[in-house]
Amino acid sequence: MNILWYYLLAVNLLAFFLYGIDKRKAVKDQWRIPEATLLGVAFVGGSIGAWAGMQVFRHKTKHWKFKILVPVFFLMQVAAFLYYTTK
Q1: Helix axes 47-57, 2-27, angle to 10 degrees
Q2: What is the pTM of this model?
Q3: pLDDT digits (tens, 9 = 90+) for 60-82
Q4: For 1-57, how does the pLDDT look when each residue is reduced to its tens digit (9 = 90+)?
Q5: What is the DSSP string of 50-75?
Q6: CB atoms within 10 A of CB 28
Q7: Shortest CA distance to 23 belongs to which of 15, 33, 13?
Q8: Helices assigned H by DSSP within the chain
């Protein structure tokens, strides 16, 4: 179980920093991190970090894909976590 906590911490920190990096690149009109990468990191367990990055950096908050999918990913992850930890 400990490895799961380390994984979740790492992937959420990664998501948070990726959203911050992408926001900085957007402001500077530089090469961007693909949306599929940002959503992919949220999907594989980084939904909390992605949501926090969206709020802190005010990034991707108006894009419907992010407004809908990041919370859906979070709910899916909570359901999976509860399923596997209550067995």
Answers
A1: 30
A2: 0.92
A3: 999 999 999 999 999 999 999 89
A4: 689 889 999 999 999 999 999 999 999 999 999 999 999 999 999 999 999 999 999
A5: HHHHHHHHT-SSS-HHHHHHHHHHHH
A6: 8
A7: 33
A8: 2-27, 35-41, 47-57, 64-85
